[in-house]
Write a structure and sequence with these properties.
The protein is α/β, with parallel strands linked by helices and 558 residues long. It is built from 21 helices and 15 strands.
Length: 558
């Protein structure tokens, strides 16, 4: 096992200095911008195609210096280099952490545990691309010779959130005549609604589960298989065992490394695409887990997607600390959550196509950094993790922005926008996208600079409601812009937040790459199921609350 020190950040000189600075910190963005006409330029960075304005954050040169010192004293960049080199920085599972290998060039090589990880990645990519070409060209057909029109991805967690987010984000790049649908929830409603109206003869199902044992995924896969075979039987197709076997082989593929279980399910192991233990689910959208996306946007589009990840990886690996955007954004999040009292972080994309991006980031950030012990098993004595949340603008403006503007809680927020829309509509002579962007810019301006009581009074506001119309300002935001939302730019955005998450976990000395907190509920669910099904002994073994709820369910189930 790799020796990865777990430094208590609270014992570092930089933490002590930041703590003292926070106690006396009195930010005034209005005054700072007035005193420094170059503040916006000073605090703006470019990372690959992303233009990142940090100037409306609650930061000055002194805070920056201490944050960079904190990164040095907690070994952030050393851990980054060890991760990129394939060392086992996932200490509780004794694994390498190599999501960055998924997008490295085929000319590279990296030996991990006796295998060239880069060669393995490109071998699987070639197989995925060949399959995608066959499906997209119509060469791959279903049992009745019809080409694929609908792809149903069955997965959960990282095997769902990444593919569905990316598919929704890149809909303008999806080949006409192809549609992707996604099933994740074990609630039967999800499978029912997703399969409703589908033609089984033109449907391809991707079952995404590394071990092929994930309860929700395999249950849903079996349900979809029953729907599929039942629908074929109604048409006089697949009416015997041989017919069923042929139908499954032509309409089901897997993303898994458990080839024995894949075959047992009925899927031809030759139609299984693997990935590796050094890829966590929430970091896997650019692996074979993204097969549905590769089918939708094609191998060229998927290569562009990977190129975006690679460009951000290169920036994170080589940019000087003071210009390293993921490092700076991660350190800012530590500053807000550990020193200025922020508990949550909003991500507000001004792009309807990114409507699933905040949900994707919830898993990435909170499953990674929702930890209460350090890498050495010692309990942490400081806050870790943030609650990530958000919705697209302008919808959020008419919902929760009130709290961000005038509430008692500070909510740092990342605003994301693009210069060019996919749909250049006009309302009369007005460019609709420019109206949209005016809201993006207005919100960050209002949050930063607010509105004083004097300004409110100058508008003729009655005195008794002046205070209700005051905006304190000094609400921190980061503005991220790019020319357009393309596969490459989406890859850059995902990699940016992957590395932000890494930086925070590294400062906190926690293992950002395990997820033991996910396991207990799964185990208990299997123990409780017999009680729900009517096993008296299993019911008697439950706590009084669980027992009472099960009894209520059984009494009210039709």
């Amino acid at each position: 096992m790799t020796d990865i020190p777990a430094i208590d950040p609270m014992t570092t000189p930089a933490w002590e200095a930041l703590d003292a600075r926070a106690d006396a910190f009195d930010p005034d963005l209005r005054a700072w911008f007035a005193a420094d006409p170059k503040r916006a330029a000073t605090w703006t960075r470019d990372a690959a195609d992303l233009h990142v304005d940090l100037s409306k954050n609650l930061i000055d040169e002194d805070v920056l210096a201490e944050l960079l010192a904190l990164a040095e004293q907690t070994g952030v960049l050393d851990l980054r280099d060890r991760m990129l080199a394939g060392e086992h920085i996932n200490v509780t599972e004794d694994r390498a952490v190599l999501h960055t290998a998924l997008r490295r060039s085929a000319e590279d090589s990296l030996e991990v545990d006796g295998q060239d990880a880069i060669a393995d990645v490109h071998e699987v990519l070639a197989k995925v691309y060949d399959f995608a070409d066959r499906v997209r060209s119509g060469e791959w057909t279903g049992i009745t010779g019809k080409p694929v029109e609908t792809i149903v991805n069955v997965g959960i967690g990282g095997s769902d959130l990444g593919p569905v987010m990316a598919y929704e984000a890149l809909k303008p790049f999806v080949r006409e005549g192809l549609e992707c649908r996604f099933i994740s929830n074990i609630d039967p409603t999800d499978a029912g609604e997703t399969t409703k109206g589908l033609d089984p003869e033109t449907t391809l199902v991707i079952v995404a589960s590394k071990t092929f044992t994930t309860l929700e995924t395999i249950t849903n896969a079996k349900v979809v298989r029953e729907w599929f075979l039942g629908a074929l039987r109604e048409r006089g197709l697949a009416t015997d065992e041989a017919g069923e076997k042929e139908a499954i082989a032509k309409h089901f593929v897997a993303v898994s490394t458990a080839l024995d279980k894949v075959a047992e399910f009925g899927i031809d192991p030759n139609n299984a695409f693997g990935f590796w233990s050094w890829v966590g689910g929430r970091y896997s959208v650019d692996s074979a887990v993204g097969t549905s996306l590769a089918l939708a946007i094609g191998p060229d589009g998927f290569e562009d997607f990977l190129a975006g990840f690679r460009a951000m990886d290169e920036h994170f690996a080589t940019a000087a600390p003071s210009d390293n955007v993921p490092l700076l954004m991660g350190l800012l999040n530590v500053w807000y959550s550990n020193f200025l009292g922020a508990d949550t972080h909003a991500v507000l994309p001004y792009s309807q196509y990114l409507h699933r991006f905040p949900a994707y980031l919830q898993q990435l950030t909170m499953e990674s950094n929702g930890k209460s012990v350090r890498r050495d098993g010692a309990p942490v004595t400081y806050d870790t993790g943030e609650v990530f949340w958000g919705e697209p603008g302008t919808n959020g403006q008419h919902a929760f922005y009130q709290l961000i503007h005038q509430g008692t809680r500070m909510v740092p927020a990342d605003f994301i926008a693009f210069a060019n829309p996919a749909w250049p509509f006009k309302e009369g002579e007005k460019d609709m996208h420019e109206l949209f962007l005016s809201n993006f810019l207005a919100q960050t301006k209002a949050l930063a600079f607010g509105k004083t009581s004097e300004e409110v009074r100058a508008e003729g506001t009655p005195e008794h409601i002046v205070s209700a119309r005051v905006f304190t300002g000094n609400r921190p935001t980061t503005s991220i812009m790019a020319p357009s939302l393309t596969p490459r730019v989406l890859g850059e955005l995902i990699a940016l937040y992957e590395h932000i998450t890494f930086v925070q976990g590294a400062v906190w000395g926690i293992d950002s790459f395990d997820q033991w907190g996910v396991e207990l509920g799964k185990v208990l669910a299997l123990q409780i199921l017999p009680a729900i099904e009517g096993d008296a002994d299993a019911l008697a073994g439950q706590d009084q609350s669980t027992k009472a709820l099960i009894e209520y369910y059984r009494a009210n189930r039709d």
